[in-house]
Automatic annotation (TrEMBL):
Its cofactor is adenosylcob(III)alamin. The lineage of its organism: Bacteria, Bacillati, Bacillota, Clostridia, Lachnospirales. It comes from the Bacteria. Catalyzes the carbon skeleton rearrangement of L-glutamate to L-threo-3-methylaspartate ((2S,3S)-3-methylaspartate). One of its GO terms (molecular function) is methylaspartate mutase activity. It catalyses: (2S,3S)-3-methyl-L-aspartate = L-glutamate. Keywords: Cobalamin, Cobalt, Isomerase. This is Glutamate mutase epsilon subunit. L-glutamate binds at R66, R100, R149, H150, E171, Y177, Y181.
Length: 482
């Protein structure tokens, strides 16, 4: 498959669309012109893009949960509760795992079992099976904009149904929903399939309906160096812009060291704007999202609230446009609606206390310079590998280990780069492998790791990585030697 980062032609797009719409019977419910009218009849207060743009202007940090259950009425009740009792500024619809794998038959069984047992037998909302009108009943029973959150390598039909169903934001991307989510899906496949998603978003945009797109920032959520996740987010934002996307939220998963996390988020938003401008995508609104701690959570709910407050502080001090909120049930699984609302109110309190403060320090400026230098080195190498074509470059970069996501399930990921924390808990490159850092940045990372080794009286080694992965379950950030 010969991938190029070029806006899909109408022939190409509508050619693919025919087969996409046949993948499940609800595809027949999609009528583009009618869907545009439906969106235009919605109050502006339900537009995700607009609410994010206003928050950016007002330098406010909005709070958003994850949430999704099998049946429509229960999902409406859940989201209304999170809107009213959780004070959510933005709402999700988290899609179930069967739908994410295009296994709609099994999602159908899950719906029937949920009706039978009166319990959600799916770990999210099966939007394809519920169809356009099922989705619309969600949107029509809420006042708050709603985003589709999932992890779907081939999300084309899901997008068609959710957009026609009134959702106004959509998470994911051809790299960020492949490498961390799939074992054996070639990158060519998902980058091409997500060009369809972004082209559809562009077609809605060109018809006057702005739909926000959000690459999935945290990736594996385990010791991912900030420059690596930033590079992926920037690449996906640019691939989306080529297809006509005009409103994009770039994301980052909290790693643990406060200065590094604030620096990473600020650099992410600024660099995304710079790269979009540099490559001729002038009129894209860029916002940012901080994902609260994506690692293991304490079972004890009081300790879980400490982790949630910690992530809220990072979002507020980084002036993130929004923050994705965890719950005190994170260690157990899908949260109850009460626990989900508690996580939201905890977050809102922490953010409002820090709303008038901003982190400023020389350490922050140094960390921003480090992350910016590393991120640009990775992104520019991708352009070089693609001889100017970013889609081709990203595919070659994954093959070459230039884009290398730690602990990823994908067999196409090199898995050679090794991260570890430094003495202050910031995530550094222990072994850069083929990540193309310039000499002085390699030396910086090495110096930080050597400093930790000296302080811990041990050699820098893979044992540090193991200790860091297990540290959290021992209530620590940096994995100390036994
Ligand atoms: C990036 C995805 C992992 C996070 O996504 C949460 N998550 C998954 N599915 C649901 C759901 N149906 N409702 C509320 N949260 C959910 C997990 O807890 C975890 O934090």
């Amino acid at each position: 498959m010969d991938i190029r980062n070029k806006k899909l032609s109408d022939d190409e797009f509508y050619g693919i669309r025919k087969e996409v719409m046949e993948q499940w019977p609800t595809g027949k419910e999609v009528n583009f012109e009618e869907a545009i009218d439906y969106h235009k009849a919605m109050p502006e207060s339900k537009s995700f893009s607009r609410k994010l743009a206003n928050a950016k202007k007002e330098r406010k940090t909005l709070i958003q949960p994850r949430a999704g259950v099998a049946l429509i009425d229960e999902h409406i009740k859940l989201l209304q509760y999170l809107q009213d009792k959780g004070e959510a500024d933005l709402l999700p619809t988290t899609i179930d795992s069967y739908t994410r794998q295009n296994r709609y038959e099994e999602a159908e069984v899950g719906i029937k079992e949920s009706i039978h047992t009166q319990k959600s037998m799916l770990n999210g909302f099966p939007a394809v099976n519920h169809g356009v009108f099922g989705c619309r009943s969600i949107i029509e029973n809420l006042d708050t904009p709603v985003q589709v959150r999932h992890g779907t390598p081939d999300a084309r039909l899901l997008t068609e149904i959710c957009y026609a169903g009134g959702f106004t934001s959509y998470e994911g991307g051809g790299i960020s929903y492949n490498i961390p989510y799939a074992k054996d899906v070639p990158l060519e496949r998902t980058i091409y399939d997500w060009m369809y998603v972004d082209r559809l978003t562009g077609i809605y945009e060109e018809a006057g309906v702005s739909i926000n797109r959000e690459p999935y920032g945290p990736l594996t959520g385990t010791l991912v160096p900030p420059s690596m996740s930033n590079a992926v987010a920037i690449i996906e934002a640019m691939l989306a812009a080529e297809q006509g996307v005009k409103n994009v939220t770039v994301g980052y998963g909290q790693c643990g060291n406060l200065v590094q996390d604030v620096a990473a988020l600020r650099v992410l938003e600024e660099l995304t704007e710079e790269y979009l401008e540099k490559y001729g995508y002038e009129d894209v609104t860029v916002t940012s999202v901080l994902h609260q701690w994506m690692g293991g959570f304490p079972q004890d709910e009081s300790k879980a609230f400490a982790v949630i407050s910690w992530g809220s502080s990072v979002a507020a001090l980084a002036k993130a446009t929004k923050v994705i909120v965890k719950t005190p049930h994170e260690a157990m699984g899908v949260p109850t609606m009460e626990a989900n609302a508690q996580g939201l109110r905890c977050t809102k309190q922490a953010i409002s206390l820090l709303a008038d403060q901003e982190l400023k320090s020389s350490a922050l400026e140094l960390e921003k310079a480090i992350i910016k230098g590393e991120t640009c080195a990775i992104v520019d190498k991708c352009f070089e590998l693609g001889m100017g074509d970013l889609a081709l470059g990203a595919i070659r970069a994954v093959k070459a280990g230039v884009l290398d996501i730690p602990f990823a399930p994908s067999k196409y990921n090199a898995g050679k780069m090794l991260p570890a924390r430094d003495f202050e808990g910031a995530v550094r490159y222990l072994n850069v492998a083929n990540v193309p850092l310039p000499r002085e940045l390699k030396d910086f990372n090495q110096g930080k790791i050597e400093h930790r080794a000296k302080m811990e009286k041990r050699k820098a080694s893979f044992q540090m990585v193991i200790d860091d992965v297990y540290a959290i379950s021992k209530g620590r950030l940096v994995g100390k030697p036994k």
